[in-house]
Design brief:
This protein is mainly alpha-helical. It has one domain. Helices cover about 55% and strands about 10% of the residues. A two-stranded antiparallel sheet has the order 1-2. The longest helix has about 40 residues. The radius of gyration is 23 Å and the shape is flat.
């Protein structure tokens, strides 16, 4: 691949990433409008034609690693493992 091709692909990649970000913002705005309507109707589930829209709270348990490291650093170190992953960036 030529350098010119790489530049073109990098430019296209950045443009697509910007479009994705813009579309995510639009989707979030639509989501907030639907949530506001459900709040106004005081419902957590709404049938809208072929769609069922739900807005509900749920709970999950997660380990607070910051607190664990402060309270029991030796144990936290004992159960901490190093992971390796890759990162792709076009800056």
């Amino acid at each position: 691949m030529t350098m010119e091709n790489m530049i073109t692909k990098a430019r296209e990649y950045r443009e697509l990433q910007a479009m994705i970000k813009e579309m995510e913002a639009e989707a979030d705005a639509l989501k907030q409008q639907m949530i506001a309507e459900m709040d106004a109707q005081n419902v957590d589930e709404l049938a809208a034609g072929e769609y069922t829209i739900r807005w509900s709270l749920y709970e999950s348990n997660r380990l607070d690693t910051t607190a664990l490291k402060k309270a029991l650093p030796e144990i936290a170190a004992q159960f901490t493992k190093l992971t390796t992953s890759t990162r792709f960036q076009v800056a």
